[in-house]
């Protein structure tokens, strides 16, 4: 009889533990760091097991609320399947200011502790169309002049790569960066072979399918161009 009581007591204790700490709410799927191309959409996953508390998301510490429609954020919504414990955050038409840390938060309930899971969203975008400074079409330079061409592109995440070409042959470069602006400077001494030479600057990163391009065609004053002009 005593043996049966011990067994029943053991079963009772195990059952009580199963309803307590053993059944705490937990994340079946946590949100993951996500790269999203600007203008596209994505879902941040959040699946909860043994859910007891209410669920909401936050962005950079600012809570978005429990309403799945997320008032005030027309491009955000929570895709909910309560039966399966799914509370995914959908971001539509992503913009640069959507970049940040997002956190799925499950509140406390009864003996369940609150739980949190965070992920970083990085917004990718192509670089802007480059601009060439230091020379404009129609300018004339002299043989022996020192010419500095600066190719500048703004924006772009990841940072843009700029490459100079002279008549389709890649030439040397000197990079400078300032925030989301990248500059590639080409300095050289002008000679007569630069007359009608086309300098092309290409800007690209992992988001661009085709480089963004700017070109300039040089006009160099030399005996050949002068004779042509006089004619």
UniProtKB/TrEMBL annotation:
Matches recorded under InterPro entries: Cell_adhesion_signaling (IPR051275), Ig-like_dom (IPR007110), Ig-like_dom_sf (IPR036179), Ig-like_fold (IPR013783), Ig_I-set (IPR013098), Ig_sub (IPR003599), Ig_sub2 (IPR003598)
Domain of life: Eukaryota
Molecular functions (GO terms): cell adhesion molecule binding
Pfam families named among the record's database cross-references: I-set, Ig_3
Stored SUPFAM superfamilies: Immunoglobulin
Primary site of residence: membrane
GO process annotations (BP): cell-cell adhesion
Residues spanning the signal sequence: 1-22
Keywords from the UniProt entry: Disulfide bond, Glycoprotein, Immunoglobulin domain, Membrane, Signal
Domain Ig-like: 25-122, 130-219
PROSITE patterns for the chain: IG_LIKE
Cellular localization per UniProt: Membrane
GO CC aspect terms: cell-cell junction; plasma membrane
Membrane topology: Single-pass type I membrane protein
Protein name: Irregular chiasm C-roughest protein like
Protein source organism: Argiope bruennichi (Wasp spider)
Biological classification of the source: Eukaryota, Metazoa, Ecdysozoa, Arthropoda, Chelicerata
């Amino acid at each position: 009889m005593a043996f049966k009581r011990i067994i029943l007591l053991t079963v009772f204790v195990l059952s009580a533990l199963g309803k307590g700490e053993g059944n705490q709410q937990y994340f079946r799927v946590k949100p993951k760091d996500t790269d999203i191309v600007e203008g596209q959409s994505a879902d941040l996953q959040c699946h909860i097991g043994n859910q007891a508390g209410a669920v909401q998301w936050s962005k950079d510490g600012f809570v978005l609320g429990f309403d799945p429609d997320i008032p005030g954020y027309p491009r955000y919504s929570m895709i909910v399947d309560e039966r399966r414990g799914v509370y995914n955050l959908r971001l539509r038409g992503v913009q640069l200011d959507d970049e940040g840390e997002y956190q799925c938060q499950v509140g406390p309930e009864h003996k369940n502790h609150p739980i949190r899971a965070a992920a970083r969203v990085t917004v990718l975008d192509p670089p802007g169309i480059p601009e060439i400074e230091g020379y404009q079409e129609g300018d004339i330079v002299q043989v022996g002049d020192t010419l500095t061409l600066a190719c500048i592109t703004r924006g772009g995440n990841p940072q843009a790569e700029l490459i100079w070409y002279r008549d389709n042959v890649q030439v040397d470069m000197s990079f400078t960066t300032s925030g989301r602006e990248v500059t590639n400077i080409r300095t050289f001494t002008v000679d007569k072979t630069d007359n009608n030479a086309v300098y092309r600057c290409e800007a690209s990163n992992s988001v661009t399918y085709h480089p963004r391009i700017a070109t300039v065609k040089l006009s160099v004053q030399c005996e050949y161009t002068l004779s042509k002009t006089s004619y």
